[in-house]
Amino acid sequence: MALMLLLSGSAAITAGLTRMRQAAPRWLVIATLASLGVFVQAPVLSRLLNLRPLPGIDSALVAAAFAVVAGVTYALALRLRRHTN
Q1: pTM, whole model, 2 decimals?
Q2: How far apart are CA 31 and CA 4, in angstroms?
Q3: Distance set, CA 38 to CA 14, 22, 33, 56, 75 (Å)
Q4: What is the pLDDT of residues 14-32, one digit of tens each?
């Protein structure tokens, strides 16, 4: 779960700071989240990496953490932009 939280947090910060306006951050966030789903949740690949697929409640917690971190980062970025102008 820690690996999923770290990677989804990184993707959330990227989403919040860039506001997903350009293609590069969009692809970066999509690729990060897709790799989490494939490498951690797919039983065959997760065994190769010595990971265990997360149960549904833990996946929901990771998704909620992503949403919270993205929202807070977006709000902070807006506040910083207003103070610099």
Answers
A1: 0.85
A2: 13
A3: 20, 25, 9, 15, 30
A4: 999 998 889 999 999 999 9
